[in-house]
Design goal:
- By secondary structure, the chain is of the alpha/beta class.
- It has 3 domains: 8-144, no CATH class; 147-267, Rossmann fold, CATH 3.40.50; 283-488 and 522-547 and 591-643, NAD(P)-binding Rossmann-like Domain (Rossmann fold, 3-Layer(aba) Sandwich).
- Helices cover 48% and strands 14% of the residues.
- The strands form 5 sheets. A 9-stranded mixed β-sheet has the order 10-9-8-11-12-13-18-22-21, with helices on both faces. A 7-stranded mixed β-sheet has the order 3-4-2-1-5-6-7, with helices on both faces. A two-stranded parallel ribbon has the order 14-17.
- Helix 3 (47-70) packs across helix 4 and helix 16 (426-446) crosses helix 22 (633-643).
- The longest helix has 32 residues, at 113-144.
- The termini are far apart.
Length: 649
């Protein structure tokens, strides 16, 4: 017998006790109702009513327990009792009183109305009392142990998200290591009022006061609808304190859900540097991509993978990921297959340097649009390997652009960089060559001189391949466009992941120069511009995004250290190592020779192309290819200078 009892789970024992309690409380509730009806004197209760009460109360109590069981009221965890359980009790009470009133009045005896009203009232009261009493006792215990709280929390946001965070921290969590003691909200109508006993003390101008007044150790930002600029403003105020700052993830701005303190995340550098999203009307992008075959070279990289994510939203006929690095390509392939199971997705491994491979891809799949993101982008590495930069960036772009023209691709969009403006390094110069390739192809296609574009071949066995495979004049219709933008936060090879790693290792954080500045944008923002350019291109343009104010890398480093809860130059040392070869103190968005034309969006501009001799450029490019494949690094760099007049390296 005792072994059987030992095998019964604890919550089963609680449920059995609740059944007994409910059974007895229902009997008692309706007796109280009858007793009240007759002036609280048992002897005054008329026998016909008392007789019918005795007759019906046991079956009714059994029926009530059955309804409670049916609605799951014996399976809840009552220490977390909430409105959900209360709602179930309301449903159960409504069902039971309706059935009792109809059955008793119709088939047994007409009882006083007060018998039903007070009876169900007592039944509901006793049912709720036992179920919420455990949680109430826990709250009392927590209130008595307030002195053990080690971390006072300031909550920013008195909306629904803030209320859920408050309840989770103060009442549900029960860990006693944190407690919300004050709330900030910019809505003046909430000032001086309370949520679960915690006062809304004022707007964001009261943050510093609250931190000092209440000895705040942590700040939780719990507003789901903050714009990037509003969030940045609040974070900058909070950064003046020594508090640890956490925020609600962006996903809660888009879909509702149960929010808890566990959902909060640390502030990132993207939040500090973030700005309001650029307003792009993407209807034309959707019309451009929908039902089309789209190829993304370098599709596994930081920019290429985001291109694939955004393209997939617009229902292309087929999306082709092309990358030389199989691990990245595999990762984005898995992600897209999971998110878009109906997407016609093809993942191919290969290099844009391989003319046969890239021609095979265009010939087989006939893409309508090509986004060319494949490139070597790391400045110091390309300084040491200029021949590889030419092979991959310049020659690879030429071969891909030629294949696009040969096999009837409608749009070719090059991903460029602000480092192509007055370049001081090999990487930037090769990207400027890529822009010149785009302009050359656009010029030749418009002039029906496609036959003057040579087929750049590096395979020794292809003796007669070039002439036989040259595109006839007037047969091309591809529109070529380049998109130029600055550094993207968190991209492969950018400074942000490097700083994060250095901070995690305890420092030092290495800067090349204390005055160095860069333009930054988020990857989704940059990709939105790329898609917009692809949709609006008429051929030959270089689209330029107004990237806002430049950011000092020193300020970036200090911000990241502070966001990690550490002190610059105290906990984490900042070390200056000097400018690397080919590195600028600042980046430019345009060359001095280029002008700007506005588009429909005032933050997006088109650079007027610089004039150059296309035939001379093609000869230089052919020579560059031969030098690069001969691995003659000094001669290659010298030829780059001759090809790109603005190269100052």
């Amino acid at each position: 017998m005792f072994k059987i009892l030992d095998r019964i789970k604890h919550w089963h024992k609680v449920a059995y006790l609740l059944v007994v309690y409910d059974f007895l409380s229902v009997i008692f509730s309706y007796f109280l109702a009858l007793w009240l009806r007759f002036d609280c004197r048992f002897t005054h209760i008329e026998w016909p009513y008392l007789e019918k009460y005795y007759e019906i109360i046991i079956p009714y109590a059994v029926f009530t327990v059955f309804i409670y069981w049916l609605l799951g009221l014996y399976r809840s965890i009552w220490r977390f009792a909430s409105f959900y359980e209360l709602k179930k009790m309301v449903y159960a009470s409504a069902i039971t009183i309706f059935c009792k009133a109809v059955f008793v009045t119709s088939f047994v005896h007409r009882m006083p109305i007060s018998y039903f009203v007070f009876g169900i009232g007592f039944q509901f009261f006793f049912g709720v009392l036992i179920r919420f009493s455990y949680r109430f006792v826990l709250l009392l215990r927590e209130s008595k142990s307030e002195g053990t709280t080690t971390s006072n929390v300031l909550l920013i946001g008195a909306g629904s998200a803030g209320r859920m965070i408050l309840r989770d921290v103060n009442f549900v969590n029960g860990a006693h290591d944190a407690k919300v003691v004050a709330i900030i909200d910019d809505n003046e109508n909430k000032w001086g009022r309370y949520i679960d006993g915690v006062e809304v003390i004022g707007g964001r101008d009261k943050i510093l006061f609250a931190v000092k007044q209440y000895d705040i150790k942590e700040i939780y930002i719990a507003i789901a609808s903050l714009t990037p600029s509003e969030k940045r403003n609040i974070i900058n105020i909070c950064k003046e304190t020594d508090c640890k700052i956490k925020q609600l993830p962006n996903m809660y701005a888009e879909k509702a859900g149960i929010i808890s303190a566990g959902n909060l995340q640390n502030i990132t550098i993207e939040d500090v540097l973030g700005r309001d999203p650029i307003s792009l009307h993407q209807e034309d992008v959707a019309a451009q991509i929908n039902g089309k075959v789209v190829l993304v070279t370098g599709g596994g990289g930081s920019i290429g993978s985001e291109l694939c994510r955004q393209i997939a939203k617009y229902h292309p006929k087929q999306l082709i990921i092309f990358d030389v690095y199989e691990n990245n390509a595999y990762d984005i392939q898995l992600e897209l297959k999971k998110k878009y199971p109906d997407l016609n997705l093809v993942t191919l491994i290969g290099s844009v340097r391989d003319a046969r491979r890239i021609n095979s891809v265009f010939e087989t799949y006939k893409p309508n649009i090509c986004y060319h993101a494949a490139a070597h982008k790391h400045v110091p590495l390309m300084e040491d390997s200029p021949c590889e930069a030419i092979k991959n960036n310049a020659v690879g772009t030429y071969k891909t652009a030629y294949a696009a023209m040969k096999y009837g691709c409608d749009r070719f969009v090059l991903i460029s960089t602000d480092k192509a403006v007055n370049p001081t390094n090999v990487m930037g110069a090769t990207k400027r060559i890529c822009e010149m390739i785009i302009q050359t192809f656009d010029h030749m296609v418009r002039a029906n001189q496609e036959d003057k574009l040579p087929v750049l071949i590096t395979h020794q066995l292809d003796c007669d391949y070039e002439e036989a495979d040259r595109v006839p004049a007037g047969s091309g219709h591809t529109e070529y466009v380049a998109v130029r933008f600055g550094n993207v936060l968190g991209s492969n090879g950018s400074v942000v992941p490097l700083f994060k790693k250095q901070i995690a290792e305890g420092g030092p954080v290495t800067l090349t120069h204390k005055d160095i500045i860069r333009y930054f944008m988020t990857i989704p923002e940059a990709v939105s511009l790329v898609l917009k350019a692809g949709a609006n291109a008429s051929g030959g343009e270089i689209f330029v995004l107004d990237m806002g104010e430049p950011v000092k890398i020193l300020d970036l480093a200090r911000n990241m250290i502070e966001l990690a809860g550490l002190r610059p130059d105290v906990d984490i040392e900042i070390e200056y190592i000097g400018l690397r070869p080919g590195e600028k103190l600042y980046e430019e968005k345009l060359m001095s020779e280029e002008g700007l034309k506005e588009t429909e969006n005032h933050l997006i501009h088109v650079a007027e192309p610089i004039k150059f001799d296309s035939n001379e450029f093609i000869n230089n490019l052919s020579n560059l290819m031969n030098l690069a494949y001969s691995n003659m690094a000094p001669e290659t760099v010298q030829k780059i200078r001759e090809t790109v007049p603005t190269f100052k390296g």
